[in-house]
Design a protein that fits this description.
It is a single chain. The protein has 3 domains: 151 residues, Alpha-Beta Complex (Nucleoside Triphosphate Pyrophosphohydrolase), CATH 3.90.79; 33 residues; 131 residues, Alpha-Beta Complex (Nucleoside Triphosphate Pyrophosphohydrolase), CATH 3.90.79. 26% of the residues lie in helices and 27% in strands. A hairpin with a 2-residue loop joins strand 10 and strand 11. The two termini are 37 Å apart.
Length: 331
Amino acid sequence: MASRQRSLAIMFPVHCDLRGQQALLVSLLTRMNVNGENIFAGAYVDRHSHVRADPAWLATAVQSDASLFVPVWGTRCLTEGEPPKLVLLPRTKIVEFIDDDEIIFLGIYRERPAFAVGIDKSVPEPFAQLGQFHDLRYLGSSLPAGEANLAAHARALVTWHRLQKYCGRCGASTQVAAGGNTRKCVNVECAVTIFPRVEPAIIVLVSRGDRCLLGRQGSWPEGRYSTIAGFVEPGESLEDAVRREVIEETDVRVGNIRYHSSQPWPFPSALMLGFNAEAETESIRLNDGELQDARWFSYKELTSGFPKLPYKISIARRLVDDWIRANRSSR
């Protein structure tokens, strides 16, 4: 996937003191082991899709003091406290930024209508008295699961709307439709409906016996290795994409491809589809320049402190952790 020049690198989680780190660890272990969900995933928002075509209901909900609003400043979300919690604002606190022509309805959250509100990055950072805006790459592993899911949903839709102001078919302006879940071309001769795009990307833990294949990009922190990943191309099945990406990046051929789990990845709009696969060859060659290095690591090495494993926010880490756990139980 070197031609696309887009990194799937994982960023650092939010920094916190010892108490915050302990709370973060408990929260993370609970979410990963009990709920079995990857970070940002989970049906915590009732999308209430049947009201999207009801302008009267949406107008009433936007005006309601009971509704919740998720501010997205540029691409960042507002949080408070340590460990952080997502700040959800009532209409009275955010009314100056609400554009009735750009309503983005997320669904029902905690039994209340929830909306995303995009705030241009050129605006001086708002709501300083209420908290701070942070990138979700830093926040994802420390927010409560439902809040991480809501924030990812809001960020993804706000970003999508900013990129779809004009019709890709005729060049005319577009306007919000279906409560912000689509846009529509204003040119009556075109009038195409534009739906939010989600870009599928595979991410795979390749193993051979008691070793697994990990690689690193040059921009990552020293010693950090992760699973192989890349975007699905037109005309490919997911299994085809797994085979192609592993060959392109490492020259290793794989088989016995098995689905693991998925993760919404709103940076800006990917869906990570996790797999396990078994290597049919061992020799490594970096074919496309995407990786700086790739190598086989044993179970022992992965539990020794080198390499540094993927960040806990990512499905990549869950793939590695599950592989380590499976190898540990078989010993």
